[in-house]
Design goal:
The complex is a heterodimer of chains A (225) and B (391).
Chain A (H helix, E strand, L loop, with lengths): L3 E14 L2 E14 L3 E5 L6 H8 L7 E6 L2 E2 L5 H11 E4 L11 H6 L9 H14 L15 H13 L5 E5 L7 H17 L3 E5 L3 H4 L4 E6 L2 E2 L2
Parallel strand pairs in A: 3-8, 3-9, 6-7, 7-8
Antiparallel strand pairs in A: 1-2, 1-4, 4-5, 9-10
Helix pairs in contact in A: 4-5, 5-6
Chain B lengths: L4 H10 L1 H33 L6 E6 L12 H8 L14 E12 L6 E9 L3 H4 L4 E5 L8 E5 H4 L10 E4 L2 E10 L8 E5 H7 L7 E5 L3 H13 L5 E5 H7 L5 H32 L1 H10 L3 H33 L5 E4 L6 E4 L5 H28 L2 H6 L2
Helix pairs in contact in B: 1-11, 2-9, 2-11, 2-12, 9-11, 9-12, 11-12
Classes of the chains: A alpha/beta (225), B alpha+beta (391).
């Protein structure tokens, strides 16, 4: 039996919007096993992105506990959290979020600049990551010289380059045509199946969710299945 | 670990329009600062260059300038016999009692009149000031109403050419020679015979006495002797010290330069701030992404500060270049300003020094860092989630 990489217990998140409290997550408990490709589904405003952000150490819960590899992420301070994200989590965004002035290579190299790797080691890892997403020949292109699908693949290479155990993706195919979407989903699926990465993907597209190994649904901040 | 430098460099270049205007604004401020300082340095330098370390200047006790000093003829006689004074090959003591007269003369360009400092020097006065060289014509003849003007003055005042005649205090004087003051305060003077000057301008006394001492120790001894001799209400000080004290002429320019630069730099700081706020606004999502990737707040802060500094340093470099071009173009021009020590017009050249350029660059750096401080702090404090959601 595989161990749990993420353990969530009684997690709640309440936003304050003016004088109104908005409950984004209400008393959620869930376990995510190492190596699975989990999809988080639900309508807009159901809290799926919030849950993803808390797991990834970008947001903090109002109450409850979220342990990733045994670490209560919410207890880390800002700097520790930044370091933790760099070492443990790879991010893929809906809007790719590449740095426009940096080349594909430089974008992928960014997270490695925070490590102690030598330039040569960095080059090796960046090239490996770019090869993995099939963009070994586009290293010196700027984001604007790439198609949307290619940009997202660069973003996946950037998420993988530090070899994180957890890859989180927030609507990664939301801005892509169906062909590019298939490619991106295929890569994420391969990561989980052959590289043993845990992939957590937020989507509201059932076709995209079909690539995952398990799906959980959220509605109004609560799990429905 | 910091963000790579070329990240900032390329961002600066990508927004080249706003970058260009900010750079031009800062360049202008830096150029004004550098040129004003170059003016002050030029003025100060003309005083600092003056003076021979072997010479002593004797003025009335308490006088800070020759023009407000008086040395009586009897006092000159007493000084003449002091043993510390060096002698020339003919055995004459190397001493020159000078008389200073100021009068107002018309400028060559017809823009009104300005005070000219006329120095009457004694026969050995030339030997005491070897840095002053005759470049055309001849030296004045003692006992005649003849003057020698400097090259720099000749371009600024009417009739200051060989054979030119002008009236000072009602007396007609003839220019017989042109001299070069060697970038010293003497560049702002007109020279003639001291006794002739005393007679035609009806001065009973001399203004100062310049003399050469045998060595430094003799100079100190002489100063001490004059200090203690009751018959001599005078003071002797090294000629170099006297002229360094005259660099005060540059103080108002320096003040004006600093004042202008301060006022303009406040404007430049706001311009830089505006640019950097716009930059942070346009890159909000990028900042959120960097933070998610693991860059800490202080890395973001440092990166934006660096970008502001980079922007202003480009402006600073351009400003330095502008000021150098300005000074080079005006190299052969002499400028004049009223010297508040002598009340005569002082001519000078703009002087750009490496130290001055470094100061100007430091100044532009300060503008950049101050201007980008608040925008950078804002960038580093953006909440990650909100930053990611920004369009």
């Amino acid at each position: 039996m595989t161990e749990n990489i993420v353990t969530i217990r009684s997690l709640s998140k309440i936003y304050q919007q003016g004088e109104i409290n908005v409950t984004a997550l209400n008393n959620i408990s869930v376990d995510i096993r190492s190596g699975e490709f989990l999809t988080l589904m639900g309508p807009s405003g159901s809290g799926k992105s919030t849950l993803l952000h808390i797991i990834a150490g970008v947001d903090r819960p109002t109450s409850g506990e979220c342990r990733v590899q045994g670490i209560d992420v919410a207890r880390l301070n800002e700097s520790q959290l930044a370091d933790w994200r760099n070492q443990n989590v790879g991010f893929v965004f809906q809007t790719f979020n590449l740095i426009p002035v940096l080349t594909a290579y430089e974008n992928v190299e960014l997270p490695l600049l925070l490590t102690r790797l030598s330039r040569k080691q960095r080059r090796h890892q960046v090239n490996t990551a770019l090869d993995l997403v099939g963009l070994g020949d586009r290293t010196h292109h700027l984001p604007r010289q790439l198609s949307g699908g290619q940009e997202q693949r660069v973003a996946i290479a950037r998420a993988l380059v530090t070899s994180p155990s957890l890859v989180v993706a927030d609507e990664p195919t939301g801005n892509l045509d169906s062909h590019s979407a298939q490619e991106v989903l295929g890569i994420l699926q391969t990561l989980s199946k052959t590289a043993g990465k845990t992939v957590i993907m937020v989507t509201h597209d059932p076709k995209a969710a079909a690539f995952g190994s398990r799906s959980i649904h959220l509605e109004k901040g609560e799990l429905t299945n | 670990m910091a963000l790579p430098l070329n990240y900032n460099l390329r961002n600066v270049l990508v927004r080249w329009r706003s970058t260009l205007f900010t750079i031009l604004g800062i360049a202008l401020v830096v150029a004004v600062y550098a040129v004003m300082q170059a003016m002050a340095v030029g003025l100060a330098k003309s005083s600092q260059n003056t003076g021979d370390p072997r010479n002593m200047m004797v003025v009335r006790k308490g006088s800070t300038a020759e023009s407000s000093s008086q040395v009586l003829r009897e006092q000159v006689k007493l000084i003449n016999y002091l043993p510390q004074i060096a002698r020339d090959e003919k055995g004459r003591p190397l001493i020159s009692p000078d008389v200073i007269v100021l009068f107002s003369l018309p400028r060559r360009d017809g823009s009104g009149e300005a005070n000219v400092l006329v120095r009457g020097i004694s026969p050995l006065g030339l030997a005491l000031r070897p840095q002053v060289k005759l470049v055309a014509g001849r030296w004045f003849t003692p006992g005649k109403r003849e003057v020698v003007v400097t090259q720099r003055m000749s371009s600024r005042f009417a009739n200051f050419e060989i054979g030119g005649r002008f009236r000072g205090s009602g007396k007609e004087l003839t220019v017989v020679g042109i001299m070069d003051g060697g970038n010293t305060a003497f560049d702002s003077e007109v020279w003639m015979d001291a006794d002739e000057a005393r007679s035609i301008f009806e001065r009973e006394h001399y203004s100062s006495v310049l003399l050469r001492v045998t060595d430094e120790a003799a100079g100190k001894e002489l100063a001490k002797h004059i200090e203690t001799d009751k018959r001599l209400p005078l003071q002797a000080l090294p000629e170099t010290d006297y002229y360094s004290a005259q660099t005060k002429a540059a103080a108002p320019i320096r003040f004006l330069g600093n004042f202008l630069a301060t006022a303009m730099s406040i404007g430049a700081i706001f311009a830089a701030m505006n640019t950097m706020y716009a930059t942070v606004g346009a890159r909000t999502r990028e900042i959120g992404t960097l933070r998610v990737l693991g860059f800490r707040r202080r890395a973001v802060l440092a990166s934006f500060l660096l970008e502001g500094a980079l922007l202003s340093m480009l402006g600073g470099l351009l400003g330095c270049l502008l000021s150098v071009v300005f000074v080079v173009v005006l190299h052969n021009h002499s400028f004049g300003t009223l010297n508040f020590q002598t009340w005569g017009e002082t001519v000078f050249q703009f002087q750009i020094t490496p130290v001055l350029l470094l100061k100007a660059l430091g100044f532009s750096l300060a503008v950049g860092v101050l201007g980008s401080l608040l925008p950078s702090l804002r960038a580093s404090r953006l909440p990650v989630i909100a930053a990611l959601k920004s369009v």
